Amino acid sequence: MGVKSENVRAIDRAIDVLECFASDRNALSITAIEKRAKLSRPTLYRILSTLIRRGFVRKDGDPPRYRLDVGVGRLADAWANSLDIARLAAPLLQELLELHNETVGLYLRKDKMRFCVAELPSQQPLSYANGLGFSGSLARGASGLAILAHVDGKQAAEIIAEELDEAKVRTLQRKLLDIRRDGFALSGGDFIEGAQAIASPVFDRQGDVVGSLGLFGPSVRFPPKRVADCAQAVKQSASALSALLGYRS
C-alpha cells in the first residue's frame, strides 16, 4: 500500500472514531470506542492521541473516558454559521412550484410569530401570495400551525391563550395533535377568503422547529385528492430541508 493510500486510510479511521461520539452525549470508555469503531487497541490509542493533541477529543478521569472537545465545536459553529436557510430552501421551493404551479414559501419562527423569508408566486391568473416580510401569529394559518404543533407545551399554551378565547382552545389543541401525527397542517381562508394553505414543519440539527414550508392557492383548485398529493409533496420538501439543516428524524 502506498503512502497516499495509507494516509487516506488513517483519515478514514479517525473519522470512524469521531463518529463514535455522534449518537452519545456521554463520555465513552476505550472499550466502547473500540467496539464501535472496530479498530485494534494500539491503532485506536494512536488515533485518539492525535485527536487529543489537535483538540478534537478530550480525555478525563481514571480510568480514562473520552469526549468531544472544542475543536469539533469550532467546526460545528463554522458549519452552522454558513447555513442560509432561504438559500438551502430555494431549489426545493422551485421544484414545488414547477410540480404544482402554486405559490410556495418559507416561514421562519421568531418568538410567537412567523415571518416569510422566501416566496415564489404562482404564475396562474388566479393565485395568492403573502409576500416577503409577511408576519403572522403561530396560532393562525397552516404555516403558523405547522410550527406551533412542535413548540414546547408551555410556550404553545401561552401563544394559544393570547390568540384564542377559551371555547376555541380545545379545538385547536386537538388540531395540533393531528398536525404532529400527519406531519402537515391545512387551513382555508384564515387570512385570505377562498385560499387553501398546506404547510409542514422544518427542524434544525437540535431537533427544534425553526419554521415551515408551505404551498398556497385558491381552494377551487384543491379537491381532496389534490390536497392529499400536495400535502405529501410539501411534507417531503420540508423533510429534505430539515435534513440539509442537520436534522435526523
From TrEMBL:
InterPro entries: GAF-like_dom_sf, HTH_MetabolicPath_Reg, Tscrpt_reg_IclR_C, Tscrpt_reg_IclR_N, WH-like_DNA-bd_sf, WH_DNA-bd_sf. The keyword Transcription applies. One of its GO terms (biological process) is negative regulation of DNA-templated transcription. Keywords: DNA-binding, Transcription, Transcription regulation. One of its GO terms (molecular function) is DNA-binding transcription factor activity. It comes from the Bacteria. The keyword Membrane does not apply. PANTHER family: HELIX-TURN-HELIX TRANSCRIPTIONAL REGULATOR, ICLR FAMILY, HTH-TYPE TRANSCRIPTIONAL REPRESSOR ALLR. This is Uncharacterized protein.
